[in-house]
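[SOLVED] Need 3D model of a two-part complex

Original post:
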Amino acid sequence: MSGVRAVRISIESACEKQVQEVGLDGTETYLQPLSMSQNLARLAQRIDFSQGSGSEEEEAAGAEGDAPDWAGAGASADQDDEEGLVKFQPSLWPWDSVRNNLRSALTEMCVLYDVLSIVRDKKFMTLDPVSQDALPPKQNPQTLQLISKKKSLAGAAQILLKGAERLTKSVTENQENKLQRDFNSELLRLRQHWKLRKVGDKILGDLSYRSAGSLFPHHGTFEVIKNTDIDLDKKIPEDYCPLDVQIPSDLEGSAYIKVSIQKQAPDIGDLGTVNLFKRPLPKSKPGSPHWQTKLEAAQNVLLCKEIFAQLSREAVQIKSQIPHIVVKNQIISQPFPSLQLSISLCHSSNDKKSQKSATEKQSPEDHLYVLEHNLHLLIREFHKQTLSSIMMPHPASAPFGHKRMRLSGPQAFDKNEINSLQSSEGLLEKIIKQAKHIFLRSRTAATIDSLASRIEDPQIQAHWSNINDVYESSVKVLITSQGYEQICKSIQLQLNIGVEQIRVVHRDGRVITLSHQEQELQDFLLSQFVMDLKVAVRLWFSFPVTSVKIFQKAMFYKIANGVIFVDHSKKFSGIKWKVGTLFIKWSCLCLHLALAYYDFFPEQNFDLKCLQTNYKHKEAITSKNVYLAFETFHFI
Amino acid sequence: MGVTCVSQMPVAEGKSVQQTVELLTRKLEILGAEKQGTFCVDCETYHTAASTLGSQGQAGKLMYVMHNSEYPLSCFALFENGPCLIADTNFDVLMVKLKGFFQSAKASKIETRGTRYQYCDFLVKVGTVTMGPSARGISVEVEYGPCVVASDCWSLLLEFLQSFLGSHTPGAPAVFGNRHDAVYGPADTMVQYMELFNKIRKQQQVPVAGIR
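Solution:
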């Protein structure tokens, strides 16, 4: 700002007067500008009353153009036009048009006022509406509401229907999905019980015992298939399962091992015709799905097959005195001469055909459930052995086999020691031994029972021990006389029933071994009965004698409650008496026993020993301290 | 394992190895021994490979790997004056792997085969020692089962040996010398065999008539 020279501005007003004329001398005569009233008149003339408000724009345009005119009176052309217009009506003053227009406006207004006032009276003039386009008929409010409600309801229904349709779609999808999901959840349940693996697009499972230590070469794979034959329209059955298992065809049905002992020797021609009776399937747990029962049954069949294969292999390979016969599904061996043990694999399939043929049922009485159970246990033992830590080598580089066998190299075992290590018995031998023992035990029991029922006096008691071994049982046999159980305790036999022999241990320490012959045991027990008859305690029969009368052939002893008369032999020596007749009035058990013994052995002499030497035959007869003592002696 | 004595029976004059063996076995059978099969003891020699020898050039040690049919699942490895190892039969396979350290001496396999007789508590084995195709001598082994301490039963053994070997009865084996009262084990038997084989190896070959 400083240092810049101020600019001189000169202002000239634009309001210059118009030149009217220029004189010859160059002077200018200016027009006098219009005065205020002249200007107003001029402007008033320009008002066009006929124009409506619509022409305001023109008016405005015109007014804008007039603005500079209003600012200054320089627009001579307009002025001239106005003046021309003005001049069209000569002798009229500028306000004339305005006056005319106003007058006409007034006239019209008056007319309008008059008309309106007449119309208001409605006497002479009325107003009629002008017909217009047909308006919509004036409706009732209820119908309107109804229709509006209907519409709105229809709209809502539409929405609801759409939603419902979507829902149904999703529900059907859900159902299908549920079936899908059911398959997966069933598969999960299946997986909790069985080993499954996926091969390609198939799901295979393993129902063999291989992972538990079995060496049976059966593959034991089952396939899991999806049950897709479900009709969504029909009702889904109660036991519907989206999962189905397909087991190998040779494991279908149910099987069991029948072990029976028969007494008669079979004809060769009868072999191989084992009648299978269909054992009713064991009831599955109520909650278990059908595939579980199916798989368990198949696994059972596999196990029975393995047992039978092992047994038949041993029956063929192992040499024994009496060779075992393997025919079809039966193994026959003879544990004892007149005894036949038959082990057979009874496999009944689920076909309807075979069900019809198996209606003839053999009585299952001769089936030994214990041995069947034991067979199952033995094969499981064998399985466990292959997996046991004794077999698994430490360190892992050592060869497989029993632990002691592995040590036999470094410890230089000789042949005897090695042989003792190797378990020599197979399944068949074990089961035959068990069968022998069971048979021997049952026969011993039968012998004892028959003797007990046959012989009333003395009595035989048998106390069987509850805890037995598979190869050994024991029974304690007591032979007593009724009433004298506490006294006659001398015959107590402990019978240890083994596989082929019975070992008898006497109370006095003698050990006797009996063979499996039934007769031998019977004879032995009978001999023991006889021993018992001889065995008794020393029974004192002593009675105080009041008077004695000696006759030639008899001696009468009068005792408190009666008389005992004894006839003595000619060989009477004072010690040896032959008891001829004993007469008693009262029942004294002791004496009765003596009598009974005497009855039993009528011919024999009973040696009576008077131990009490205070019986002096003659001298003491008269004394009151005479005691007559009978004693039956034997060895205790 | 009882106390065992291994000795060599010299070949009778004018007779072959076979005939001498037959003589012996007949004697035993007359004595009352019962034949119980055959036996076999063999020995292979290895020496430590030259690469493992020190720069001083010490002589390589000889290792003997022996088998005895009496202990069918075992393998014995021993050095001359050193320890004896009793191992599993996998030891032979191991030796193959140790080829770099132990090289087998050529034509060194020597073995004795024969029959086994049991006479009450005594176990007598009479065998022909062969090296390759040729029979080199006769080995006699007597074991007294019940006793495991050498000093206790040596006299009994000696007496028994005298009864059928006669004048060829050996003296007490060297293994008994140091450890009279120690428990006798299979390793001692193998040491005796090793010494026997070494002795036979050094001997001259039996005359041609003895070769069958």
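Edit: The radius of gyration of chain A is 70 Å.
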